[in-house]
Amino acid sequence: MEFAGQTAIVTGVARGFGRAIVRRLARGGARVVAGDINLPGAEETVALVKQDGGEATAVHLDVSSAQSVQAMVDLALQKYDNRVDILVNNAGIQILKPIEETTDEEWDRVIGVNMKGPFLTCRAVIPVMRKQGRGHIVNIASVGARNGGTYAGVHYVASKGGVLALTKKLGKELGQYGIVVNGVNPGPSLTDMTAEWPRSVIEGVIKNTPLGRMAEPEDIADAVAFLASDAARFISGETIEVNGGITCD
Ligand SMILES: NC(=O)c1ccc[n+]([C@@H]2O[C@H](COP(=O)([O-])OP(=O)(O)OC[C@H]3O[C@@H](n4cnc5c(N)ncnc54)[C@H](O)[C@@H]3O)[C@@H](O)[C@H]2O)c1
């Protein structure tokens, strides 16, 4: 098992990609601390991991709060051998509005979760990974950061552009400590986040995707598992496109 004996932290785990990522890492032998603002949802994910024969712990997390992030990291250290091998920044929110209708508060909220969140989690785990002399960080951005988005708010697309830049910057800054930092740009997927998308938008996505379907959470989880594993030990600062060929150019 590629993650045997390793401790992983995953954010935004109550459903969607996060749930699939937690299950995938746990199937690989990782002990996973699974954080979400929706604690009952995180607990459901952990129950699924246990059914699969894996090990995970659910924790209430507001990824935009430094205090909440630190409490999650402290729990991981205390519960699973005083180490953090893998951090997956997956929590994200979306508000579907044109720019003229977007309020200051909505801008701050989306940037706070999607962009400040990964900054806070990285800042909290890096001292632990430095001490270990190794660590894998995987940031979930979006194809929208590359192509302006299919059906997304300006704050969302801007926040994901920030995640791409953060990934590059930390890849450069942390290589000297044995820490690799990479990202995944998922293509559109039918999760709760996209539940409000009109049928015509979904049909357009499928039509414009060479592989002829939308992403499944497991497609994203497998890419995350690769980047979190030793197989990706010499890749850093990169973000891989997992979108069925939408951006092949
Ligand atoms: N679904 C897509 O089409 C798509 C495409 C590209 C990128 N993404 C990105 O992938 C990630 C997961 O997307 P998804 O579709 O599974 O979304 P989702 O809405 O189904 O799940 C997001 C999870 O994040 C949690 N969350 C929200 N705010 C939080 C906070 N403050 N602290 C901790 N947890 C919080 C939610 O409770 C939820 O469990 C997001 O970062 C999203 O932007 C999604």
At a glance:
With 249 residues, this protein is an alpha/beta fold.
Question: What does the average pLDDT come to?
Answer: 97
Order of strands across the main sheet: 3-2-1-4-5-6-7
How many domain units? Answer: 1
Give, in order, the helices and strands: EHEHEHEHEHHEHHE
Biggest beta sheet attributes: 7 strands, parallel
Description:
- The chain is globular.
- It has 8 helices and 7 strands.
- The chain has one domain (7-242): Rossmann fold (3-Layer(aba) Sandwich).
- With 249 residues, it is an alpha/beta fold.
- Helix content is 46%, strand content 16%.
- Helix 1 (16-27) packs across helix 8.
- The chain binds nicotinamide-adenine-dinucleotide (NAD).
- Nicotinamide-adenine-dinucleotide is lined by residues 11-12, 14-18, 36-38, 41, 61-64, 90-93, 113, 140, 142, 186, 188-189, 191-194.
Looking at this protein, list some descriptive labels.
249 residues, alpha/beta, single chain, 46% helix, globular, 8 helices, Rossmann fold, 16% strand, binds nicotinamide-adenine-dinucleotide
Strand and helix map with partners:
Elements: E1 7-11, H1 16-27, E2 31-36, H2 39-51, E3 55-60, H3 66-79, E4 86-89, H4 104-132, E5 135-140, H5 144-147, H6 154-174, E6 179-186, H7 199-207, H8 217-228, E7 239-242
Parallel strand pairs: 1-2, 1-4, 2-3, 4-5, 5-6, 6-7
